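Justification of resources, computational component.

The compute hours requested in this renewal are based largely on the per-chain cost of generating structure records like the one below. Each record pairs the submitted sequence with a full structure-token output. That output is archived, and it is also reused by downstream analysis tasks.
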Amino acid sequence: HEAKIIAKRLKELNPSIPIIAGGYLGSTAETLFQTAPIDAIVRGEGELTTPELSEALLNGSDITKVKGILLFKENKVISTGERGQISNLDDIPIPDYSLVDLKRYISNLDNFCDFSSDSRSNNYKGGQMEIRTSRGCTNGCTFCYRHMRGIRHHSPKYVLNHIKFLQDNYKIDFFSLSDELTISDDIWPLEFCRLKIEMKMDFLFRICAVRVDKVNPSMLKALYEAGCVEMDFGIESGSQRMLDAMKKMVTVKLNLTKSA
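The structure output for this chain reads:
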């Protein structure tokens, strides 16, 4: 709804402005093209596609040669072809936060109770911010609209360097790891905890999306000792029939056991 309003307003201000949509809007391509003055939609990951598309638009080149976009021609959605996923997420640089007013994205703990429920938070004075450490998921629940195949993680060292940059430059002490699935095995979280201690980094964090079948007691202990104050489990339902219909691949009993 907001995308349609913004696109129409921009075209009213200047009809020559190309309007490119992306992200989850790719899953609504046909409807969006028919109801808003969108010129193209970047499909899937945009880090490589968007600069190439921008360059083509600036140079007046043929944008149909740019892989990874959707266009609308003769009342049909046209794809320019698949662009492969970025295999190594560490190749993506840490965002240039100077381009935005980052204060708009930093929460005050007074308005964010998830951390303040842990007494350790009293030792910190900085703000809270969300970051991403991975893309994708290990499973295929029926309610998910995901465009990506499989799961890919930034390395623990990349994530900790990202956090260190934000701590040093913006005084952030609380981080929400807001992935679709932060933990997919034992290796990543344990290495993250080990490196955090080795690098003598001091911050608290919460993990916003965890499957109950991906955690174990020793991992949870290590995460707590490294500063994890909360985990949000994707339990979805207390009905086994519904869990099976969703293809969650877990049981009610496991949900009760692990989340307790």
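DSSP finds nine helices and ten strands in the chain. The mean pLDDT is 92.
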